[in-house]
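pls read this protein.

:::
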Amino acid sequence: MDAELASALTTYAARWPQEAATVALFHMLLGDAENPFLRERLAGHFTASCWLVSADGARVLLTHHRKLGLWLQLGGHADGQRDLSAAALREAEEESGLTGLRVEPAIFDLDRHRIPMHKAVPEHWHYDVRFIVCAGTDEAYTISEESLDLAWRNIAELAVDADADPSVRRMAGKWLARQAEA
């Protein structure tokens, strides 16, 4: 499975050459002797997130993250799971309550970011591997305990929303570019 992730990271780097430095950090983490798929690895660990798009491709489901207080994509810890696309799908289902979701196996986005200290867990790095997850026709979500709220947001509006998280704006731009190519 690690060889598959390494290959997927290389493919991602070819598509997004301006993100080569970020990809190199992910490759380094993947090669670390200490298991980087466990949240207990406080020097940094992999997480898996999703760009959960509506069936029409015009909207994305975001969470008002309880711990961070920001509107972000759904996702979370890999918790030892080395198939990060499966982890992203699991997180999408758990955090939205939606069924009939479908994950695309290619990496959509990468983001390395610091997580602030929370309770007894010290500040640490998340190496977030993000995948596209497609919703079916049922968009009636359920808010989990990890969220203050959930909302379907227009992707074109997010791409230019100065108040949106920079990584959310970046993903919105990537999604719109992908839609224009189709």
